[in-house]
Amino acid sequence: MAKKVVATLRDKSALKSFAKVIKAVKSPVTGAYTFKEEMVAVDQIQEALK
Fold first, then answer.
1. For residue 50, with 0-12 CB atoms within 10 Å meaning exposed, 13-18 middle and 19 or more buried, which class applies?
2. How many whole angstroms separate alpha carbon 19 and alpha carbon 27?
3. Which of 34, 36, 50, 42 shows the shortest CA–CA distance to 14?
4. pTM of the model
5. DSSP string of the chain?
6. Backbone dihedral angles phi then psi of residue 9, each to the nearest 5 degrees
7. Per-residue pLDDT of the chain in tens (50 residues, 90 and over written 9)
């Protein structure tokens, strides 16, 4: 059974919350999907998904 993991990290010096964003990106050459992971500040999640 697959599990969904949501990670939230806090930077204690800046008190900024971060989240791990995973995007599925389709390769133009093969048509296969790959996954791109990045850590993004919570207030910038919508910009990272565009």
1. exposed
2. 25
3. 42
4. 0.56
5. -------EEEETTTTEEEEEEEEEEE-TTT--EEEEEEEEEGGGHHHHT-
6. -120, 150
7. 455 556 666 656 556 788 888 888 899 999 999 998 988 888 888 888 77
